[in-house]
């Protein structure tokens, strides 16, 4: 699992690596430039591509100068370097790499202002102006130059971070390079994982530059990025004498007469994710559909539920398509009052909580709330930005002692212990109705199977996205019904070899 860092922490890791490897800072810069150049060449193999490289006079600019030299060595001859000479100061590593590039008799021009350059034609534009150290908005010539570069035709690549974008925190303004591809060093930046980056980064790739991983792991950070290899350590192989009674009984409470589809998706996802027994509490009008779609699932009427022994259920998932009627409110209140094991709360159950805030205090510890952005804001108050949501999610998860799954392209899992896990799997092809209902069923199922809450949520979120990734290789849009069918195959693939 990768620990994610702020810009300041990344700088600290740089300095630690330089001192303790030991390695000269210029040699670490060379390592970064070589890592960048390697993946660049893999994508742009034609040495006849024309390339413009914009460099500032700091270390990001030094990266750009080193990249220019390495590309010249690799046979790319149509390279023009522009140095934004807007400040008197330059770093030692910038000057070192400028001297080395000048020995190549490279085409280098200094820009005293943004007016010194007109719109340029090039196949590739590389942005190495300012990098990750930015802590204030661009102004004056920097702002003008960025806006001008954004008008250039050609494929734009940023070195480490698009110029004008902070690594974390609110964006200062929209004066940011709009990169087609950002090649970033050692770790993705936190803002890359949030929707605020989408106008400025179409695609990004992490390259390893050999920073000291032991020091990174010792650094205090609440942010982690989890991958396939992490959840493979969690998943349990079925044992020879296991039977359905040992694999948990899950109850899904979902659906209304006009929204039965959500209940069926959630129930089927729960069954296909491996729960030993799955019972669905749905309106009687959906019984025929349930028997047709998920014949393995059992049915529970609301009347029989009132008389049921809730202890037989390991977990309850509630909310998809439930509606917000008075009967739905009463049902949720009864569950929260009488069921003290973890509950997976989604969709309309979240909307009910938003309207009846007194019920929030009844949520059992270690329950799982799975809001999307609008549901989160309805539940915890209107947020002005994604960073406000993150701050509030940390607060609410620790205060309520619950897990909050804030659904997004890179879904975030907030824990009662104050940790935020970013999911690495998923595809834009999954942007279709019913995906949240499926995820709720998966989380509920894994909790029934005696996974810890943290592992169940991570495994469900990753598997959900991974199934979508696999289907997106063959499908333009991934419907929720198709994703459900993929679940058993994905879980089988994730079993430790």
Automatic annotation (TrEMBL):
Domain YjeF C-terminal as annotated: residue spans: 227-494
Subunit structure: Homotetramer.
Species of the source: Pedobacter cryophilus
Swiss-Prot/TrEMBL keywords: ATP-binding, Isomerase, Lyase, Metal-binding, Multifunctional enzyme, NAD, NADP, Nucleotide-binding, Potassium
Catalytic activity: (6S)-NADHX + ADP = AMP + phosphate + NADH + H(+); (6R)-NADPHX = (6S)-NADPHX; (6S)-NADPHX + ADP = AMP + phosphate + NADPH + H(+); (6R)-NADHX = (6S)-NADHX
Name of this chain's protein: Bifunctional NAD(P)H-hydrate repair enzyme
Signal peptide residue numbers: none
EC number per UniProt: 4.2.1.136, 5.1.99.6
GO molecular function, one term: NAD(P)HX epimerase activity
Cofactor: K(+); Mg(2+)
Residues that, per the record, bind K(+): 60, 127, 163
Keyword Hydrolase (UniProt): no
A Pfam family assignment: YjeF_N
Cofactor note: Binds 1 potassium ion per subunit.
InterPro entries: Carbohydrate_kinase_pred_CS, CARKD, Nnr, Ribokinase-like, YjeF_N_dom, YjeF_N_dom_sf
């Amino acid at each position: 699992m990768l620990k994610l860092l702020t810009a300041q922490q990344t700088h600290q890791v740089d300095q630690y690596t330089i001192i303790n490897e030991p390695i000269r800072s210029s040699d670490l810069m060379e390592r970064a430039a070589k890592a960048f150049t390697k993946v660049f060449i893999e994508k742009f193999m034609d040495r006849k591509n024309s390339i413009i490289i914009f460099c500032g006079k700091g270390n990001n600019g030094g990266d750009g100068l080193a990249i220019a030299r390495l590309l010249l060595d690799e046979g790319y001859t149509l390279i023009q370097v522009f140095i934004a000479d807007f400040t008197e100061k330059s770093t030692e590593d910038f000057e070192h790499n400028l001297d080395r590039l000048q020995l190549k008799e490279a085409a280098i021009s200094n820009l005293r202002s943004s007016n010194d350059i007109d719109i340029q034609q090039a196949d590739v534009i590389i942005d190495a102006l300012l990098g990750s150290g930015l802590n204030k908005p661009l102004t004056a010539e920097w702002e003008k130059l960025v806006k001008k570069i954004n008008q250039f035709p050609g494929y734009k690549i940023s070195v480490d971070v698009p110029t004008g974008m902070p690594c974390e925190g609110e964006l200062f303004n929209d004066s940011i390079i709009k990169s087609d591809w950002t090649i970033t060093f050692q770790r993705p930046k936190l803002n890359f994982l949030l929707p605020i980056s989408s106008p400025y980064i179409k695609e990004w790739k992490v390259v390893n530059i050999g920073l000291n991983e032991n020091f990174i792991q010792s650094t205090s950070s609440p942010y982690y990025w989890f991958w396939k290899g992490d959840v493979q350590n969690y998943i349990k192989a079925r044992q020879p004498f296991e039977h359905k009674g040992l694999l948990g009984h899950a109850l899904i409470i979902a659906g209304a007469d006009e929204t039965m589809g959500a209940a069926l998706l959630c129930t089927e996802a729960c069954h296909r994710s491996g729960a030993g027994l799955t019972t669905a509490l749905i309106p009687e009008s959906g019984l025929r559909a349930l028997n047709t779609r998920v014949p393995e699932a059992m049915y529970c009427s609301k009347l029989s539920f009132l008389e049921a022994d809730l202890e037989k259920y390991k977990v309850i998932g509630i909310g998809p398509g439930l509606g917000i009627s008075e009967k739905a409110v009463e049902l949720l209140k009864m569950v929260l009052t009488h069921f003290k094991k973890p509950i997976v709360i989604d969709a309309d159950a979240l909307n009910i909580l938003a309207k009846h805030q007194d019920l929030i205090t009844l949520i059992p510890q270690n329950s799982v709330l799975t809001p999307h952005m609008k549901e989160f804001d309805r539940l915890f108050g209107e947020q002005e930005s994604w960073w406000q949501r993150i701050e509030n999610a940390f607060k609410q998860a620790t205060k309520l002692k619950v897990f909050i799954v804030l659904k997004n392209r890179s879904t975030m899992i907030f824990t009662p212990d104050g940790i935020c896990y970013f999911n690495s799997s998923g595809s834009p092809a999954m942007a279709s109705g019913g995906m949240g209902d499926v995820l709720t069923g998966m989380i509920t199922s894994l909790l029934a199977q005696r996974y810890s809450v943290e592992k169940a949520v991570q495994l469900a979120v990753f598997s959900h996205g991974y199934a979508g990734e696999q289907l997106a290789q063959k499908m333009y849009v991934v419907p929720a019904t198709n994703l459900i069918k993929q679940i058993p195959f994905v879980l089988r693939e994730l079993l430790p070899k």
